Amino acid sequence: MNKLMKKQNTQKKHSTLWGPILAVVLLALVLTIVTGKFMTVNNLLNIMRQTSVNALVAFGMLFVLLTGGIDLSQGSIVGFAMGIVTWLYLNGINNSFLMIILPIIVGVICGFINGVVFTKLHLPHPFVSTLGMMQVLRGLTLIITESKPVSGFNQPVLWLGSASIMRIPVCFLLVILVVAVTSVFLNKTSMGRQIYSVGGNIEASRLAGIKVDTTLITTYALSGFMCGLAALVLIGRVGSTYPLAGEGYEMDAVAACVIGGASFSGGKGTVGGTLVGALIIAVVNNGLNLLGASQDAQKVVLGIVIILAVLVDVTRTRRSEKRRRLAQASSENA
Amino acid sequence: MNDVIVELKDIKKFFPGVTALKNMSIQLKRGEIHGLIGENGAGKSTLIKVLTGVYKPDAGSIFVNGEEKRFQNPNEARAAGIACVYQELNIVTELSVTDNMFMGNYVKKKSGFLDYSYMDQKVKEIMSGMNQTVNPSTLCAELGMGLRQMIEIGKAILLEARVLILDEPTSSLGEKEVQELFRTVKLLKKKGIAILFVSHKLEELFELCDVVTVMRDAEHIITAPMQEMTKDKLIMHMVGRTMSNMYPKKESNPGETALEVRNLTRYGSFENVSFTARHGEILGFSGLVGAGRTEVFRCVFGVDPLDAGEIFINGKKIDIRDTRDAIAAGMAYVSEDRKGQGLVLEESVSRNLSLVNLKKFVKGFLINDKGVLKQAEDTVDTLKIKTPSVESQVINLSGGNQQKVVIGKWLNTDSAIYIFDEPTRGIDVGAKLEVYHVMNRLASEGKCVIMISSELPEILGMCDRVIVMRTGKIMGEIGRKETYFNQEDIMKAAWGGSIGNE
């Protein structure tokens, strides 16, 4: 009896991930049949490259979503972190180490400020604090870069976004590494567990003596960190910097998280799911590309995919709630 | 008699494991103010919900003007002329008086647009009929609680209610507003409306009501004309129970003072609260809901900031700025709202059980999952928590087992002072007994146990000493005399009498 129930429980946990994975596989199958070009090594490597930036930003968004928040400033942080590199270049500093380390530091600082502004100024919702930050950072980016695109960076700066190891793009290896590290972080460290607790029930967490503010600030700082990493990958992929880099990335990130099973009310979502979510977006875009669909049509399809994915999730939650009600009713009657 | 507008006869209502109403009968008559009184949990709210069609009774009948009715939903009760103004007002503060009064019943012109001139006029008429003047286009946010309540009453009149239920209408009003309300209620009485007035305040009943009904333990106890009643009689009817023997026997040897607070004040919640709690005893906090007991302990536990006062633990003054300070000082707080403040519902039993002491299992950077699971298995065994496994989500457990998880979480911290806030609310009898055993065990181990409870039998059965609070103040402290408490003392203190000076 106990074992059976245990099995059901673990199955439930995994099922949230199996849905999206199944979707990716099905999509891939269909695309393989419809176009001969999909299942080629080159195209798969392409998808890996196309996924990387969105996946990294989405991991950042996941931390914040887990606490029930949102980070609208992500795209602007990516732009600003990249803008710092432009600024260095414009000021005649072409030091590779600085150009690699500064975007990441700047990202963390921006995220930290997001968290502090939200928690310590008692703003009603991170929507407000990060919406403000989004505008501020975009403006600052345009100011410090004089709205100029810049190219011609040293090889080490471009390495993360452009190099491959045994044909596999380094940026995708980075994504895998990040998945591994953040999974351990979220599941095996006390800060990681606290992120879930705070998102699941902020009052219970406060009463349990958890440092709620610190936990929240940490998630925003982590979001900023991921944006810094993404900026670095983006520079390598594009080979240059541009002032409007990252615009709208936060929305793709939310999409990846939500497709991967994360919830806006917090406490729910996994890194693995988010990666799968990002992959679905990349595969859809890639497939439509191969089929010759326009950028505009891709948006329409992607929008529908997002709504469908959440619909599936919501339906599943409602079913399990109903099952729970029935189970409780029957146990009470017994 | 033609005067009876609504009659309930032998109404029964059951919830899983609880009888909420047994054989409740009441008659509400034209032009009569009928008082309803009883302890927390006596069944008053259930009665109101049956009257207003929120609950369907499991047995018994409802008659409106002599005709038997079965309300399928609140709309049908409203259509039959029964309206209720709840303690928590249903006012949208960002809308105008007219909008609030006509919400859901907007009057439209032929063109399809709203007919505000008509509605504003109607609002003025109704309000002046209650001796109130208010500008119909004022936002409700600008009005005081008294006027907001008037608007709700006006809404009932607009819907031509013939029975008006007022559920603790004075609890959030000032003295002047209360008098204003009473004048209005008397006016409505003259107009032939039947009024059911539910209150916790005895004085108000005597001032206003013609007839009073006392409820206790889900039952009708007595209905009598007000002038035949005295305060003492009312209290006697409310208490008059025999003690059940569901409370486990125990030995208590109170030791040194564990917790002492002096002159705690948080304006608006409580003032000048001082008391001591000893190791090895169970100290009860009794009083009505809203007397300020929870608020006191939220401050003691560092959830809300204090305005004034000092807290001493084992004789040493300590400064508590947040819950972490309180936990570090050896306190544990089982909050009254287990779903809202006690549990992370979507998470597993083991994770909830390690919510407070997770740090204990961290080695280097990583959590030792085996330790967390072991702790959970042990707690599940000792508290007899019924769960398929320690990995199950707590949302799937029954109320009693959820409460055991909340308690288990704190037992795992090995604190010295345990504060239980309504620890047995909404859980079944078996689980209650387990909770009592836990409290007794803690006390016998020399821990200091504090129990806030609105259930008098529980306070009487479990505690060594009882402190009674009323409207944010401590009304008195009552010790166990030989083996029993004088329950009427406690009731008097809680309900606004004075403790007898024997």
Summed up, the domain count of chain B is 3
Biggest sheet details of chain A: 2 strands, antiparallel
Shape of chain A: globular
Question: How large is the radius of gyration of chain B?
Answer: 25 Å
Structure description:
The complex is a heterodimer of chains A (334) and B (502). The model of chain A is unreliable at 1-15 (pLDDT under 50). In chain A, helix 3 packs antiparallel against helix 4 (96-120) and helix 11 (249-259) packs parallel to helix 13. Chain A is globular, with a radius of gyration of 21 Å. Chain A starts with a helix and ends with a helix. Chain A has a single domain (20-328), classed as ABC transporter involved in vitamin B12 uptake, BtuC (Orthogonal Bundle), CATH 1.10.3470. In chain A, 78% of the residues lie in helices and 2% in strands. Chain A has 13 helices and four strands. Chain B has 502 residues and is of the alpha/beta class. Chain B has three domains: 4-239, 3-Layer(aba) Sandwich (Rossmann fold), CATH 3.40.50; 256-330 and 415-502, Rossmann fold (3-Layer(aba) Sandwich); 344-414, no CATH class. Helix content of chain B is 33%, strand content 26%. Chain B has helices at 44-51, 74-79, 97-102, 116-129, 145-158, 175-190, 202-208, 231-239, 293-300, 323-328, 338-342, 349-353, 369-383, 399-411, 429-444, 456-462, 487-495, and strands at residues 4-15, 18-29, 33-38, 59-64, 67-69, 82-85, 163-167, 194-198, 211-216, 219-225, 257-266, 270-278, 282-287, 308-313, 316-318, 331-334, 362-363, 366-367, 417-421, 448-452, 465-470, 473-479. In chain B, the strands form five sheets. Chain B has a six-stranded mixed sheet, with helices on both faces. In chain B, helix 8 (231-239) crosses helix 17. Chain B is globular. The model of chain B has no long low-confidence stretch (mean pLDDT 88). The A-B interface holds A 2, 5-6, 9-10, 184, 188-190, 193-194, 196-197, 200-201, 203-211, 267-268, 324, 327-328, 331-332 and B 16-17, 301, 303, 323-324, 326-327, 333, 335, 340-347, 351, 355-356, 358-359, 362, 365-367, 369, 388-389, 391-393, 395-396, 398, 409.
